[in-house]
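Researcher: Batch entry, complex prediction.
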Amino acid sequence: MAEMVTLTIDGKEVSVRKGTTILEAAKQVGEEVPHYCYHPGLSSPAMCRMCLVEVEGAPKPMPGCVTTVAEGQVVNTQSGEARHHRQGVLEFYLVNHPLDCPICDMSGECYLQDYVHAEGRKHGRGREPKRVFGRDDFGGDVLFYGDRCVMCTRCVRFMSEVEQDHRLTVVERGNRSVIDTFFDEGLDGTHFHGNVVDICPVGALVSKDFLHKARAWDLTHTPSICTSCSQGCNIDHHTRDNLVQRLKPRENLDVNGWWICDYGRHNYEWMNHGDRLEAPLVRGGEPSGAMGWGDALRTLLERAADKKGSVKAVASPFASNESLGALKRLVDALGGGDIVYRSPRAEDEVTLEGFPTLVRRKDLSPNTGGAGRLGMKRVGDDEGHGGLENVANHDGVLIVLGDGLLDQAEAFGADAGLFVYLGTHGSAAAAEADIVLPITSHAEMEGTFTNYEGRVQRFWPSLDAPGMARPAWLVLGALAAELGRGSVVKTAAEAFAALAAEAPAFSGMTYDDIGTRGAVVNESVSLTGD
Amino acid sequence: MAINVKVMKRPEPETTSYLRAALSGMALTFKHMVNPKKVTQQYPEEQTDLHPRWRGTHVMETHADGRPKCVACGLCPTVCPANCIRLVGGEDDQGNRYPIVYEIDEFRCIFCGMCQEVCPVEAIHVGRHFENAEYTRDRFVYDLDRLMEQEHPSTLLWDPSDPAGE
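Model: Structure tokens for the complex:
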């Protein structure tokens, strides 16, 4: 048990571990002390002087980010004295700040804007001309606007302490000091440099991808999980006009800290793709054509009735645990059979040196952990191709969930007694499908993924589903229930409860337990290989 | 109770002349013909001076080189209570932020003038103008070129000599 220290912050008594900084202790009583250079994931140089607080008995204001708490200390973060000092610091920040908020991408989520609005002077007193640096391309996805910079050096410290690739530094001195790269090297070739844009408290470092794309206040933030590898980084989808505009990391110290890799950060365009399947489609026999869900599923059950006994299914490791569980129930209800999945695999892992928990995994699918724990087998090569030779010529019921079959021939499933294709987009290889059902992508539904270490994490819908597309767990769960396996599930939480009741790895877990932080499955051994 | 009906005595048509009434009416008409105090305005030949704070259809101010002053900051679509402004920002070849798409639906607009009030670069203005007739409805969605072409004077939302209204 760590030694505890009791102190008073803004009249509220609080007990914290010995060695905690005043800034962190103030967070616990709900007081946000303004700060730029301090970031919980980086060292504290105490150079921005924004976190000055009044400590009774101390001769001068103390920087809250490095001053550790002491027994019986009385701290005022909002007193006139503390605010007076911070107001002076803010005035210095505005000496050279261009105040170009109308054209700055950070406007609306800028800490200089917030703090000046909350604590700054009403009118500036500066008369001298401001120094001008202009714009610099730092390489990679990063643009640097030197005039806006407050010299907190978070970006320099991120590159040296966390990415551990010294690409940024401070050059010059005094009011000419500016962040710069070494020669023409820039940030090209580093794998986590997008995070410097996130941690920049002002608009000095902005993303080229997001440049002028949307205003911060127009964006809706939805918690989600990154689908670019099996690490399962916690992210937020920032959406506007029913389109994902950018991805930002969401803090989770057990998985990704405050960071995500650049590969995952920029892999979002596919969520916005149009040309989606929007209505259930039935081919061959009567009835056929596009139809409502009720008619399509009734037709499916009628045609499946005389074909029990031999089922093969292709699942996708991009489908949620709930969808995979519902697929397994349906396959069992139809007489049982093998379920396989294919997953692309990278040659190398990329580790974030300063936060080694965060690795861009070789396994490039978000839910191989869930598929493996439900007894599905990985087939195919590292490109996520091939491996479906047995399935393509199967003569019983064939179900494809989420796999685009992009490498497969048009004759795929031509011999199948009943070929059911559930997907977001049409596919040339689904030409022989008897029944095509539109399902939602993970961005349009609620669900969970199981990451490389067996951590089950929830994601929430950030986009509206197109047309009649429905989550796969809803469709498959309804079919399984009609065939006598389980009851009809109406919500994702019920779908997960149905999964937890059947799969030992998930037993005892509920949506409430998982929450926003995730929960680890019951066994710790990964079944998915390296 | 019986209702008493009062029978009015009417002039008999055969014995009454309308000449006196006609002449008194015509006298009033001729009096107005020579009266210098005119109330009828000869619109459209004569135009009224609109009040300086009249709020009509919009004007986009331009720089001397013809570029719009708008920097696509997004404040006017944010503040617009009628949601009538559509804006897509971008960057021009000189690295300036500018509106790729800027459209105002004048049918939807309620002419509150908040877009002008919020504009940090004094680009968008409501104008002193009310003659907006068009042959088709879609002509009332003013795009950026159309807004820049508008030649009518823009509205003064406040007195320049007394901006705080004191």
